């Protein structure tokens, strides 16, 4: 079932701006689940386990996070980030970090004075995060949503965002070429989508791999986000040829193995 969903989406919702649409579609379809139980235990080992073959079991949680004072990011236009100071290098694996939550592109995303974002560009892109596992987590939540700008039928807003948050190089160039050749995206309504949890696969001051869970209606889906510290901020690793940013996307029957973290 999951391959059918992915194949259908590949041909009909292929632009980067459909990242949230991908999660929305997967979360509302009953699919063969994968889970991340045990992935957090691999954090810090430097190894990235194969995402295939995990299984999930039913779990329940009541998400709750304290409201940290809202950040006041500096308005900039693609400028350099302020220097990142040394902060807590722990990985919260029981409950999510304190955060304030703001609406961006129809989805609530976190911010905190200690972890970022510390810069908000003129077009609304929130960037410049702390060089820590928690900073990478804040970046991942915000970047997923940033990749789906509103009213972007030409794709130019998406490309502008990706140039600032995705690691440059040949793979990014190839990804851009693919997006330019893809069908024009439809208007995306993400009002039903909510980012609800995460699981660290691995994290260090230089690299983090985090699985993010999303909810739409009564269903869940996950995506994998690989970030590298580069030029003073976290950057999304450009996908390998033939893959999409956030691959693999998977449907979930529950949130076993995830740390609950969502807007109150």
Keywords:
21% helix, six-stranded antiparallel sheet, 264 residues, alpha+beta, globular
Provide the fold topology.
Elements: H1 2-12, H2 19-27, E1 74-76, E2 100-104, E3 107-111, E4 119-121, E5 126-127, H3 133-146, H4 156-165, H5 170-181, E6 193-203, E7 207-216, E8 219-230, E9 233-236, E10 250-252, E11 259-260
Question: How would you describe the overall organization of this protein?
Answer:
There is one protein chain. The chain is an alpha+beta fold and 264 residues long. It has one domain (2-260). It is 21% helix and 23% strand. The strands form three sheets. Strands 6, 7, 8, 9, 10 and 11 form a six-stranded antiparallel β-sheet that branches. Strands 1-4-5 form a three-stranded mixed β-sheet. Strands 2-3 form a two-stranded antiparallel ribbon. A hairpin with a 2-residue loop joins β2 (100-104) and β3. The longest helix has 14 residues, at 133-146. The chain is globular. Mean pLDDT is 76; it is low at 1-18, 28-46 and 50-71.
Quick overview:
The chain is of the alpha+beta class and 264 residues long. Helices cover 21% and strands 23% of the residues.
For the terminal residues, how far apart are their CA atoms? 33 Å
Major beta sheet summary: 6 strands, antiparallel
Count of folded domains: 1
Outline: globular
**Strand/helix succession:** HHEEEEEHHHEEEEEE
Number of strands: 11
The proportion of strand residues reads: 15-25%
Whole-number average pLDDT?
A: 76
């Amino acid at each position: 079932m999951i391959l059918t969903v992915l194949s259908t989406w590949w041909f009909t919702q292929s632009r980067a701006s459909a990242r949230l649409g991908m999660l929305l579609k997967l979360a509302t379809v009953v699919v063969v689940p994968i889970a991340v139980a045990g992935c957090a235990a691999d954090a810090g080992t430097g190894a990235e386990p194969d995402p295939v073959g995990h299984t999930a079991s039913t779990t329940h949680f009541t998400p709750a996070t304290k409201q940290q004072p809202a950040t006041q990011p500096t308005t900039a236009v693609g400028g350099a980030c302020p220097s990142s100071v040394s902060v807590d290098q722990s990985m919260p694996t029981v409950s999510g970090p304190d955060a304030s939550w703001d609406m961006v592109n129809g989805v609530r995303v976190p911010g905190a004075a200690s972890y970022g974002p510390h810069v908000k560009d003129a077009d609304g892109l929130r960037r410049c995060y702390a060089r820590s596992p928690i900073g990478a987590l804040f970046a991942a939540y915000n970047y997923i949503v940033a990749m789906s700008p509103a009213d972007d039928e030409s794709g130019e807003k998406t490309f502008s965002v990706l140039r600032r948050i995705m690691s440059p190089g040949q793979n990014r160039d190839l990804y851009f070429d693919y997006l330019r050749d893809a069908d024009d995206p439809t208007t995306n309504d993400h009002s039903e989508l909510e980012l609800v949890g995460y699981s660290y696969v691995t994290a260090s001051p230089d690299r983090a791999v985090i699985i993010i869970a999303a909810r739409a209606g009564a269903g869940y889906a996950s995506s994998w986000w690989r970030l590298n510290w580069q030029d003073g901020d976290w950057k999304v690793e450009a996908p390998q040829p033939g893959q999409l940013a956030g691959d693999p996307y998977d449907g979930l029957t529950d949130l076993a193995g995830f740390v609950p973290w969502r807007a109150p």
